């Protein structure tokens, strides 16, 4: 009876291992496909613009309601995007104002130091290398490690008459 039962329940190919493997692979493929479809449906719920196009409606009123809901959702997304844009623009405007005020402050400091330098230059001896500002600028080197300028040491050049 058990032999007959196996033959009836499993058919003639009940003992065929290749057929069982093929059925397992097919079942695995079906399960994977089901998971993919579930993911697509979940995505469609999140982005229902495609979902509306896939629906078949029984009446025009039902289609109008569905599309109205979609329109409301899209309008809400549009409002959110517009407020986000306004927030970003105001943030950038504040940063711009801050940068401009920093630039103005730095320009004022630069003008002060330039005027101080012009006044102090007249007090430097003419035989010192600091008397020529352009030559000093040319000889100065920016040091990356310390993030400061390396200015040449002051040297007094004495001229001797023969």
Automatic annotation (TrEMBL):
<keyword id="KW-0175">Coiled coil</keyword>
<feature type="coiled-coil region">
    <location>
        <begin position="57"/>
        <end position="123"/>
    </location>
</feature>
<protein>
    <submittedName>
        <fullName>KIF17 protein</fullName>
    </submittedName>
</protein>
